[in-house]
Amino acid sequence: MLQVKKLSFSYAKDIVLKDINFTVNSGENLAIIGKSGSGKSTLLKLIFGEYDLEQGQIFWKNIEILGPKHNLVIGYDFMKYVSQEFDLMPYTSVKNNIGKHLSRFYPEEKEQRTQALLKIVELEDFATTKVKNLSGGQKQRVAIARALANEPEILLLDEPFSHIDNFKKQTLRRNVFNYLKTKNISCIVATHDKNDVLGFADEILVLNSKKIIAKDKPQELYKNPRLPLIASFFEEFNVIKNKIYYAHQLKIVEHSDLKATVKQSYFNGNSWLIEAEHNGTIIYLNNNESINQEEVIYFKISD
Ligand SMILES: Nc1ncnc2c1ncn2[C@@H]1O[C@H](COP(=O)(O)OP(=O)(O)OP(=O)(O)O)[C@@H](O)[C@H]1O
């Protein structure tokens, strides 16, 4: 189990994280979300041991994670971190990057393991390509495979699929997160993308104003977002009479006391997102088809 206890941290004078407490069990997938600059990457780096803590402690099982003041080499064998920078060896092949930390004394196992990892990140065709000749998304996939090579006990992922195209993203997410579950590897993912979270995270931790403002199962946070900041992570939403409603909870009907004037329609695949003005504020609703600008609509709210 990972335990983060009373952690506070600042770069120079500005405090970034204050009194952070949480735990992650073995095999659990925790997503960290929050606005840009809320401290997600900093928290991952602290857990990895990249900086010395000012206050608080971090433990993996009963080993205390310590920063550079206490360790000549940053990091621990049981933990891997895939940063936004990847840190790959550019003039070396994909295969050798992935196998970098695998033992040379067992060449057959090393080859099998590398092939299995190439398959997970779907880079079999690039095994002998030098990393410098890969696209950003391909490099990101190499970095993920390399982090998995020695089966860490806990994996820290910072925006792990941000460079990967939409054609591959969903398959890759399933491959990686299912692999982690089958191997009981704990995982902490910092992300802006709800698709990295819904369907994969056991819990979501929300950072805001230096603190944890929520920690709950994705289903619970989605159903009861409590704050506009949380709702905005999932979908377009409205605040009506101090309650939060997603766009799909407002239904256009023939007759209602609730009236709005359409301003814009946006195609979003499954339906259209309708932007309309209601009592001087902009609201968002879903509809099966687009609606002309300035048309008056009536809507009801369904919980
Ligand atoms: N090395 C550093 N030195 C000084 N300040 C830093 C450093 N790294 C980050 N910060 C600051 O700390 C705060 C938190 O940054 P961090 O990168 O952890 O946020 P984040 O939530 O991961 O952001 P994003 O979602 O944009 O990646 C920001 O205000 C940032 O400017």
Task: Characterise this structure.
The chain is an alpha+beta fold. Helix content is 23%, strand content 34%. It has seven helices and 17 strands. Strands 6-7-8-3-9-10 form a six-stranded mixed sheet, with helices on both faces. Helix 3 packs across helix 4. It is globular. The model has no long low-confidence stretch (mean pLDDT 94). Adenosine-5'-triphosphate (ATP) binds at residues 11, 16, 34, 36-42, 190. Keywords: ATP-binding, Nucleotide-binding, Transport.
List the helices and strands and how they pair.
Layout: E1 2-11, E2 14-24, E3 29-33, H1 40-48, E4 55-60, E5 63-64, E6 79-82, H2 94-98, H3 107-120, H4 136-148, E7 154-158, H5 166-182, E8 186-190, E9 203-208, E10 211-216, H6 218-223, H7 228-234, E11 237-240, E12 243-246, E13 250-253, E14 258-267, E15 272-278, E16 281-287, E17 296-301
Parallel strand pairs: 3-8, 3-9, 6-7, 7-8
Antiparallel strand pairs: 1-2, 1-4, 4-5, 9-10, 11-12, 13-17, 14-15, 14-17, 15-16
The structure holds adenosine-5'-triphosphate (ATP).
Adenosine-5'-triphosphate is lined by residues 11, 16, 34, 36-42, 190.
Quick synopsis:
23% of the residues lie in helices and 34% in strands.
Bound molecules: adenosine-5'-triphosphate
Which strand order do you get reading across the main beta sheet? 6-7-8-3-9-10
Number of helices: 7
Mean pLDDT across all residues, rounded? Answer: 94
Distance between the termini: 37 Å
